[in-house]
Specification:
253 residues; alpha+beta; CNF1/YfiH-like putative cysteine hydrolases; 2 domains; eight-stranded mixed sheet; 9 helices; 28% helix; globular
Length: 253
């Protein structure tokens, strides 16, 4: 297992992301209780609960509050009172809750407000980005928990890079509805036969900066899940058992 040092060494928060050796080494990894024990051993943090996103490649966010013990979800920047069938980001201000997502090329996005002690993790694929997963998550942090974008640090776990992610013309058109022409020039590189290379991490960075997160507080592991066989990759290997995907998590101390 691995962590984001820029989070863990400076703040009362712990992060992790796994590689393929973790599920190979851990007997019973597919069992949630055994997996929790392994995660707790690595983090050296008592875990009250491990919460997994109900991923649907959406813009929906689920939050757990210490004030009420309640929850909420957000879809297309509209708050609602219950999960909308699924949610691709988790937010909390409760210590001891490990928030987790699974990925196999999509971007694991870690967020932490250094002043208000609010943590989030989001599963960011192209569908989620187009559906507003990034601004929705930051909005929940701000409107529900009092976080401020200028106090948020962000990190990317292993994900497919902009040199490997080949997409079609229709995705170029769809992103053009959300990003300016100049931004599209940063996100896409044209290839032959109406194909493009798309940089998902750049798309997320542009949205975070637009929201007020400082550019210097957006950090990246630099790991491409497609290039490195140490990580799960849908593009390289096809569909993967969820428990054998990359697991990313964040917990407040």
């Amino acid at each position: 297992m691995h962590s984001l040092p820029s989070f863990d060494r400076a703040y009362p928060v712990r992060t992790l992301y796994t590689d393929n050796e973790d599920w190979r080494r851990c007997e019973g990894w597919q069992d949630a209780d055994r997996r929790k024990a392994a995660l707790q051993d690595y983090l050296r943090v008592p875990l009250k609960q491990v919460i997994y996103a109900r991923e649907t490649h959406s813009g929906s966010v689920f939050a757990v509050s210490s004030e009420t013990g309640g929850s909420l979800a957000i879809k297309k920047e509209t708050f609602v009172s219950a999960p909308l069938g699924g949610y691709d980001a988790l937010v909390t201000d409760v210590s001891g809750l490990l928030l987790c997502i699974w990925t196999a090329d999509c971007v694991p996005l870690f967020l932490y407000d250094t002043t208000k002690q609010v943590a989030a993790v989001a599963h960011c694929g192209w569908r989620g980005i187009l559906d507003g997963i990034v601004p929705n998550t930051v909005r929940v942090m701000a409107e529900r928990f009092g976080a401020a974008p200028e106090h948020i640090i962000a990190g990317f776990g292993p994900a497919i890079c902009g040199k490997c992610y080949v997409v079609s013309e229709d995705l170029h058109e769809a992103f053009s509805m959300r990003f300016s022409p100049d931004e599209i020039g940063e996100l896409f590189r044209p290839l032959a036969n109406e194909k493009y290379l798309l940089d998902l991490r750049m798309a997320i960075s542009l949205e975070l900066r637009r929201l007020g997160v400082r550019p210097e507080e957006i950090r990246d592991t630099g790991i491409c899940s497609c290039e490195s066989e140490a990580y799960a990759s849908y593009r390289r290997n096809g569909p993967t058992n969820p428990a054998r995907q990359t697991l990313s998590g964040i917990v407040l101390l």
